Amino acid sequence: MTSAYSQFIHRQVHLQQSNPEIRIHYVEAKPTGTQKGTILLIHGFPESSYQFRHVMNPLSSAGYRTIAPDYRGAGYSSRPLTGYSKKILATDLHELLTKHLDITDPIHIIGHDIGGMIAHAYAVQFPSDVASLIWGECPLPGTTIYDEFKHTSALWHFDFHSVPDLPELLVSGHEKQYLKHFYDRLAQNPSAFTEEDLEFYATLYSAPGAMRAGFNVYRTFEEDKVDNQRWLKEKGKVKVRAMILGGEGTLDALRSEDMAKQVNEQVVAGVVQNAGHWIAEEQPEIFTRKVLEFIEQ
């Protein structure tokens, strides 16, 4: 664990004590001076709240209480066997903030990769609790881009992760090499991931049940598709002010804005220059600037 991550406040909250235990770990950076609001950072796969280690201090220094949880099954949070639809993962985080951290004002949500899918589910289910929404770097289940690309070679891992049991068997003992494949392949700046970073992520995902929980997040994509299409039919597009944010060199850069317009009523596109998929780690200063410019409009 780097000093940049260990300096934050680390806490764990039990949403449920047993049958199964639902325990959520989160890190927090308090704002300096007058608090302007709360930012919720939602990580993706194969990462954890550690993903935001370079941006939490700048965001909190700008006046925002900044909270980054490890969603169910990831990081230091518990790894129950079930409950990995984005509807449930979003509900977990809403309960964490409203019932345990006593946050009552609308928040700014930023979701990356799987976290973008969770951020969408949060905004759909709890729109009055969301001030703004930033999400991206994911083909959202239920959109046309998801259906077009889910079985392509670029997203080969969607199918692999969905196979029961076999991925766990094949990846076991090779977690570091498996994770590094994604960091290297999807980055414009692979050096953003140091050996210390790789070891930290590999340690997290080598823990009992960690890869199984990570794969389960993918195994619920078709359930997520049904939820997202049902919400769109029943509620219409998300009305919260939104930005789709991605890296300049990402695989779906040309299609992400079109995808976002399928589910967001008010959406603009943001680009993190000189970055691939891992925007908060490859270009943290540009990421922070884009976030603050949007939420402070």
Structural write-up:
The chain has 297 residues and is an alpha/beta fold. Helix 3 packs across helix 4. An eight-stranded mixed beta sheet has the order 1-2-4-3-5-6-7-8, sandwiched between helices. The mean pLDDT is 96. It contains 14 helices and eight strands.
Walk me through the topology:
Layout lengths: L2 H4 L2 E8 L5 E8 L7 E6 L13 H6 L2 E6 L16 H15 L6 E6 L1 H12 L4 E7 L7 H6 L6 H7 L3 H6 L3 H12 L8 H11 L4 H10 L1 H15 L6 E6 L8 H8 L3 E6 L6 H4 L1 H12 L2
Parallel strand pairs: 3-4, 3-5, 5-6, 6-7, 7-8
Antiparallel strand pairs: 1-2, 2-4
What labels would you give this structure?
single chain, globular, alpha/beta, 297 residues, 14 helices, eight-stranded mixed beta sheet
Tally the helices.
14
Structural class: alpha/beta
Average residue pLDDT? 96
**Roughly how much helix do the residues carry, as a percent range?**
40-55%
Short synopsis of the structure:
The protein has 297 residues and is of the alpha/beta class.
